[in-house]
Design goal:
22% helix, alpha+beta, 2 helices, 3-stranded mixed β-sheet, globular, 3-stranded antiparallel β-sheet
């Protein structure tokens, strides 16, 4: 049945994706195919399945959306306090496998129990040019909350110095 459904699905979702071709740089203009239709279909179905599971998990558990709104800093680490309430702070492992670039976002599923609804968190940012590191502490709701997502905006304001007519002013 998949062999009958796949061409129709591809025609609706991405009519030119399966038949994408590229020209080599030679003067003959030889055309080569990028991938077989079967590989393309399998890849598209896998992507659709991952997107569906992500959407379902966000609906069932709730998602924590983390947005890096800085211009020059990568968010290189996200830590959650693993200590018991009232205890000394004990940061858990870094929750980011990759740095979160400026003007980008990621999401985490909220899988914690009732004791994690007001959890201390820490972000570590690194300036892209100077490599200076900054730690930002806050709290976030990490407890499971079906149908309710939470958004954290990570933003560092950098002072700007404007020189006009030989006089410096900061904004």
């Amino acid at each position: 049945m998949l062999k009958y459904l796949a061409p129709a699905l591809l025609a609706m979702v991405a009519p030119n994706y399966c038949f994408a071709q590229t020209s080599e740089a030679s003067g003959a203009g030889k055309i080569t195919s990028i991938g077989t239709p079967h590989d393309t279909i399998a890849s598209m179905l896998l992507e659709m399945n991952v997107a569906q599971r992500t959407r379902d998990n966000c609906w069932n558990l709730g998602c924590l959306v983390i947005v890096n709104e800085t211009k020059g800093y990568d968010v290189i680490a996200f830590y959650v306090d693993m200590a018991k309430p009232g205890g000394k702070t004990k940061w858990g492992p870094n929750q980011f496998q990759l740095a979160l670039s400026p003007r980008s976002m990621t999401l985490k599923f909220k899988t914690g129990g009732p004791s994690t609804c007001d959890q201390p968190i820490r972000f570590v940012l690194r300036h892209q040019k100077t490599k200076e590191k900054i730690e930002l502490d806050g709290t976030a709701s990490l407890c499971t909350t079906p149908h309710q997502d939470a958004v954290i905006h990570v933003k560092v304001l950098e002072p700007n110095v404007i020189i006009e007519d030989g006089a410096a002013s900061s904004s």
